[in-house]
Amino acid sequence: MFVLQALIMLLLVAVASAALVVQGLYDAERSAADRSLAAAEAFAHAPGTALALRSPDPTARLQPAAEQAQKGAGVDFISVLDKHGVRLTDPDPALIGTKAQGVGRAAAGEAFTETFHGRPTDAVRAVVPVTDASRRVVGMVTAGIQYANVGHVLHRQLPLLLGAAAGALVLATGGAALVSRRLLRQTHGLGPAEMTRMYEHHDAVLHAVREGVLIVGGDGRVRLANDEAQRLLDLPGDVDQRQVRELGLGPRLTRLLESEETATDEVIPAGDRLLAVNIRPTAPFGGVQGLVATFRDTTELQALSGQAEVARGRLSFLYEAGVRIGTTLDVQRTAEELSEVAVPRMADFVTVELLDSVLRGQEPSSAVREMRRTALRASQSGHPLQPVGDVIRFVMADTPMVAALRRGKAVLVPDLHTAQDWRAQDPEGAQRALDYGIHSLITVPLRARGVVLGMVNLWRGAGALPFDEEDVAVAEELVARAAVAIDNARRYSREHELAVTLQRNLLPLGLPEQDALEIASRYLPARSGVGGDWFDVIPLPGFRVALVVGDIVGHGLQAAVTMGRLRTAVLNFSSLDLAPDELLGHLDEMVTRLDTQSATADDDRVPLTGATCLYAIYDPVGGHCTLSRAGHLAPAVVDPEGRVTFPDLPLSPPLGVGGHPFESGELDLPEGSRLVLFTDGLIENRGRDIDEGLAMLSAAIAHPDRTPEETCRALVETMLPLHPRDDVALLVARTRLLAPSCVATWDVPFDVEAVPRVRREVSRRLADWGLEGTAFATELILSELLTNALRYGAPPVRVRLLLGRTLVCEVSDGSNTSPRLRRAATTDEGGRGLFLVSQFADIWGTRYAARGKVIWAEQTLDSVPEPDPSALFDFMEL
């Protein structure tokens, strides 16, 4: 029996010993795995690990921490890997930078333990992923105990096991083993000290964070709530194990916690706070069914965000106002833009009143108690405010408008029902406004450069909040920007009006009377300001007419002044009765000289160089026209049948270029032809080139029955927009011919004895014309001019009489020597003829031809000139 018992005991001891050995080996590996997992998880979830992995040198930051954690955890190694498995730290520095094997599951986000066989050594290890706030794997931590050390632990325990077995404490040893197994399983291999330290650490962290944490089990009961969660949610002290629905968290938050749905930064009101709530279930992360909710107080952040949004909206509004106000240089349109910007974003009604002087472009007057309503914008129809155009008077001393004018800044009336002075100024109108629902007002003076231009009133009606002080600041800034734009428009209008007035006064005020051409003209200033385009019609001796069209480079007042200088020069040169090419030559020399002088002066004058000019002389005796142009477009010629041509005339460079001769072209124009002279602004613009413009011009004037006035009107309507970009000068002339019966010509032999005969023939022709009353003066003029030509000139000599609205007597010869008026001495036999001519003729002069000269004298027909006897006697010293 004993033997049997001994055998049984031996068998039991052997079985128990073997079981204990196996159990010891298993427990050793299990313990090693648990310790490795705990060490790896603690290091992986440590507060600085994820941030260190993202640092420029993670090895330097993590190697010391890993060594310290290795010593504290009692493991053989703790290594930190990047997300690709490359070692960043290792107890063996030689392994840093090498790639670890078999860590793919952790790279995919799974923590695991295993008995690893391979390089660098066999070990029981745990591999835990390191994740960032968004649960992305940024690295891994591996910790473990070498397999040889696991067996060494077993060998140290074996004598104890054998001693226990030998002591026949099989049942006690077995019970102890069972208890040990259970404890190890529940504590994951951690001892009481480690468990206490870990609990204290986790509890301190949980309650120290400034973020509420609430853990709810799968049954809807609260498992844990940290101090911040209790403060933010106003939870009772006995919150543990209470149902979520019993905590009075509000329906929305309660629904989120009970539904166990994931939530990310969802803003939920809780009492007087706004909480950003994040909810994550615990089951997917290895825990039991339940959820973890975190709470962040965003009340102040939301308030700051709201204030920033309001400020951003106001800045956006003011920026939009700066873009939309002042798009034109028109005072009234700028005021309208101000009202359009403010309604409805800032006010329900906006009125803008301006001084009449500002509307006229003049300097603002000091009388600011009377303004004219210039713009009105309303978000609703049927309002009771006075319409645009009404005169607004400020008669009460203490109304908001008068107070704003006196102070020079905005005045706020939050409630118009209490504004007694405003109501007293116009009781009926004020009552209508109040009945309509208008209840709040900001009135702001329009000031620029310290001067009042007008007044802006912003009103709010029913359904809108009253204005406050912040609205006043925005209104002042808005009105200040608009005031600058309005003042710019006013000053531009004034300058533009001055320039246009100057331009029009420098242009011909009317077309001169003459019989050679039927003329119509147009001048249209550019939208951006006047320019230097001009035209002129200049009567010349012998019923000839000069037509001039020119264009100055640039725009503005200086261009207009420059045009006036050139026009005056052309008028002066034309008085010399020069040929077109000679006149342009003199004009070119003058431009060059003036530009040379201006180049040395310190001013901003517009240069003359580059100006273009077309000068034409039309002679109604035969319909001959001579033209010369300096850089200018050729005119269009419309024959009596309506055919349009652009004659090929010699083109010389613009004025002031110098170094090139000027040439003339000749045209013979039948009676009824139209000559169309224009500047480039008529045919050129951004939408068409010069060829297309000339084609359009040809189509517009190709009508044989149109008068010059009708032609001008058709060209303006067809060719030009309402506000052209460039100024335009246009001149249309329809030709007339002097009747052959009104022209008498005599070729005179180069002999003074022919003078009496020619004088008699001229008298007969005057009698045929019914001009016997002018016969004496004409014969005297003819005798003196013809005698001078025969004595001092050269053949051939010719006499011509022209009858029109005046009588013209011309004597031409082949000499280029021109006689001059002088005082003859008492001993001189001659020298008095031209004085007699000047006394009996209304005007006389000399012009040069290609060969020789022509001396002419002109007499009016409605009265016979009577010379001054005293002047005659004084001149002849009688």
Automatic annotation (TrEMBL):
Residue ranges of every copy of the PAS domain listed in the record: 200-265
Presence of keyword Phosphoprotein: yes
CDD domains attached to this UniProt entry: HATPase_RsbW-like
SMART domains the UniProt entry points to: GAF, PAS, PP2C_SIG
Subcellular location: Cell membrane
Keywords: ATP-binding, Cell membrane, Hydrolase, Kinase, Membrane, Nucleotide-binding, Phosphoprotein, Transferase, Transmembrane, Transmembrane helix, Two-component regulatory system
Principal location: membrane
Residue stretches spanning the membrane: 158-179
SUPFAM superfamilies: ATPase domain of HSP90 chaperone/DNA topoisomerase II/histidine kinase, GAF domain-like, PP2C-like, PYP-like sensor domain (PAS domain), Sensory domain-like
Pfam families linked to this entry: GAF_2, HATPase_c_2, PAS_4, sCache_3_2, SpoIIE
Membrane topology of this protein: Multi-pass membrane protein
Record carries keyword ATP-binding: yes
Domain PPM-type phosphatase: 514-735
Domain named GAF: residues: 326-496
Name of the featured protein: SpoIIE family protein phosphatase/ATP-binding protein
Natural source organism: Streptomyces bangladeshensis
